[in-house]
Description:
4 strands, alpha+beta, elongated, 4-stranded antiparallel beta sheet
Amino acid sequence: MAALQQKKVFIIDIKGDIYSCSCHNSTDKLSIGSIYEGIDYNKVIKEGHYPKNVNEYNDCRNCWMKYLCSGSCIAFKWIETKNTDTPSAYICKMNDAYWNCIIKLYISVYPIIKAGNNPNFNIRKINS
């Protein structure tokens, strides 16, 4: 999810420079080409301006939530660390807090939903 946009979208600024992400827009160093000269694929690969499998990020390999955040957004990584392979410590902490809360909420609400005691969601109607 974190890098879904990068698989499908290029951003072109008013000067014609091409970026792999809207967060990188207008940062000349992060341009991957221009509409006049095309995309510099060597730069894309060398500097990591593309989403990778989360297991390719060294810092994510042993993280419990790696499949939930997909290694985070490469723009956020670059903004904080100037490296698209190194996760943002801030975003990691934020994701950890977020996913812990979501999992605890799910664990507490699931028995209510399964029992059919939630007036907003009746599982019995779905299973019928």
